[in-house]
């Protein structure tokens, strides 16, 4: 699936890298990827994309045609172009594991390396992490709404291009989806491929019953029938019942029906009555048609007897909140072994960055798996009680407190770049479910979730204030 993506960047990244190569050749940079705002007014984002990040970094190079193109721009000198032609990545990465719920301002990924190199990585890393974390987060919301019922991702035709369809499917599984209609993604990532039929199959035959019988003849053990081409209750379900009984008589087990239009609740209730009356209580009912995390709970609250959901565009595009605006900010430089924290100051404290190399810790009630807060600390700090911390939310009333009892677990860890990252998506999904279960249930609500507190240590807060004061004097 992977191809070299070194040229997937913005022109200014090359221009900055070329300047760094000439002006600061001995300086290394430390950049954090983090986000500020949660999509869909949620409380957290599910991290995803690390496996592709590792793949990209392991094959990061510039071929002869890349160098020829860059030379043709007449912007860069021969020394820089020769450096790119013989490019050897010299970077280290730390990151949270895929599937980890992450809160605003917490680094999802940190990369350190020669300043010219880490500058070149900005666009491609943000592209991967922003997109896949966005879709994993949307999938978490939709599967949460489905309340244990399987969700099939089938939005490939509405995704913003092939890569978005393929890696969006992977992210959807991390977020909780059970299967996909996308055969390429299913093959690439070991995901169950699922699907029924389109209306064109039914329309192509002389009658709906003939269409259903032909499908059952071809796929006797995968007889999931789309019943809304003409009339769900007058023909679709009755014809499906005829075919299902014929399958049972031949020793096969029918799968179910899918309803893709109309009043889903009303149709599902009446279809269920028809199926049960025909002695087919095990036949499943799947709903599709522009569903999301708001429509699904409404259907279930109305008593719709649905067993599965097929979700297309509203999942694969996260259409209600289509951007995770993660950013890539310089946190420190290192020259001749000397680390210097860096800060981006803004008129808004919300946009002022946290300086230095950091670690995020999840805090648990002592001896339990119940998380109650996170703390962002400088990487060399030791978290022991009592611990003075500052609430990272600039709008909170009580900012400074002392934490007296907690177990702390670091969220970020070094990522080996000499081997592929773990990529078995259902293992990552199980990990995500475990980490989500540790969070307070109030923070997982789809509407008006409670705020999960993220603190910074007093030492980090003091460093930030010091650098802000220095910037004012400059």
Which strands sit side by side, in order, in the main sheet? 13-12-1-5-3-19
- Helix count from the secondary structure assignment: 16
Structural class: alpha/beta
The amount of beta strand, in percent, is 15-25%
Could you give the count of β-strands? 20
pLDDT < 50 runs, ≥5 residues: none
CATH class value of the largest domain: Alpha Beta
- How much helix is in the residues? 25-40%
What is the CA-based Rg, rounded?
26 Å
Overall number of domains: 2
The CATH superfamily of the largest domain is identified as nicotinate phosphoribosyltransferase
Give the CA-CA distance, first to last residue.
49 Å
- The mean pLDDT is 96
Task: Outline the structure in words.
The structure is a single chain. With 474 residues, the chain is an alpha/beta fold. It folds into two domains: 11-135 and 322-473, nicotinate phosphoribosyltransferase (Alpha-Beta Barrel), CATH 3.20.140.10; 136-316, Alpha-Beta Barrel (TIM Barrel). 38% of the residues lie in helices and 19% in strands. It has helices spanning 11-23, 50-58, 64-72, 78-85, 115-120, 122-145, 162-174, 183-189, 199-204, 208-218, 232-249, 264-277, 295-301, 313-316, 425-437, 458-473; strands at residues 27-34, 45-46, 92-96, 101-102, 109-114, 151-153, 179-180, 224-226, 256-259, 284-287, 308-311, 327-335, 338-341, 358-364, 371-378, 387-391, 400-403, 407-410, 412-415, 454-457. Strand 12 (327-335) and strand 13 form a beta hairpin. The model has no long low-confidence stretch (mean pLDDT 96).
């Amino acid at each position: 699936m992977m191809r070299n993506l070194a040229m997937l960047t913005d022109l200014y990244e090359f221009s900055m890298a070329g300047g760094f190569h000439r002006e600061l050749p001995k300086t290394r940079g430390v950049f954090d990827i983090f986000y500020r705002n949660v999509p869909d007014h949620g409380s957290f984002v599910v991290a995803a994309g690390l496996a592709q990040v590792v793949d990209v970094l392991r094959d990061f190079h510039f071929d002869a045609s890349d160098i020829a193109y860059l030379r043709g721009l007449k912007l860069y000198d021969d020394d820089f172009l020769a450096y790119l032609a013989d490019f050897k990545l010299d970077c280290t990465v730390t990151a949270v594991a895929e599937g980890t719920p992450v809160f605003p301002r917490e680094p999802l990924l940190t990369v350190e390396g020669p300043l010219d190199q880490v500058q070149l990585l900005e666009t491609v890393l943000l592209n991967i992490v922003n997109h896949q974390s966005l879709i994993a987060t949307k999938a978490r919301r939709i599967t949460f709404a489905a309340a244990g019922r399987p969700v099939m991702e089938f939005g490939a035709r509405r995704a913003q291009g092939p890569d978005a369809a393929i890696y969006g499917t992977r992210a959807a599984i991390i977020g909780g989806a059970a299967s996909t209609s996308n055969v390429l993604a299913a093959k690439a990532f070991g995901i169950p491929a699922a699907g029924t039929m389109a209306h064109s199959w039914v329309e192509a035959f002389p009658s709906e019953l003939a269409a259903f019988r032909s499908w059952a003849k071809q796929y006797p053990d995968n007889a999931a029938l789309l019943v809304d081409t003409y009339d769900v209750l007058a023909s679709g379900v009755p014809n499906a019942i005829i075919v299902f009984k014929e399958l049972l008589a031949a020793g096969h087990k029918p799968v179910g029906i899918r309803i893709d239009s109309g009043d889903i609740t009303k149709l599902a209730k009446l279809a269920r009555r028809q199926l049960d009356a025909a002695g087919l209580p095990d036949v499943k009912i799947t709903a599709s048609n522009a569903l999301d995390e708001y429509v699904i709970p409404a259907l279930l609250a109305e008593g719709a007897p649905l067993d599965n959901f097929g979700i297309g565009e509203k999942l694969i595009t996260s259409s209600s909140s289509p951007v995770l605006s993660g950013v890539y900010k310089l946190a420190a430089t290192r020259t001749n072994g000397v680390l210097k924290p860096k800060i981006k100051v803004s008129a808004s404290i919300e946009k002022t960055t946290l300086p230095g190399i950091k670690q995020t810790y999840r805090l648990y009630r002592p001896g339990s798996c119940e998380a109650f807060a996170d703390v962002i600390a400088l990487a060399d700090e030791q978290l022991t009680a009592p611990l003075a911390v500052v609430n990272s939310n600039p709008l909170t009333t009580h900012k400074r407190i002392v934490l007296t009892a907690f177990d702390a677990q670091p969220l970020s860890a070094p990522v080996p770049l000499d081997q592929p990252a773990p990529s078995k998506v259902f293992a990552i999904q199980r990990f995500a479910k475990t980490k989500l279960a540790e969070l307070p249930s109030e923070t997982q609500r789809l509407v008006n979730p409670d705020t999960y507190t993220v603190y910074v240590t007093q030492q980090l807060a003091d460093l930030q204030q010091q650098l802000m004061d220095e910037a004012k004097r400059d």
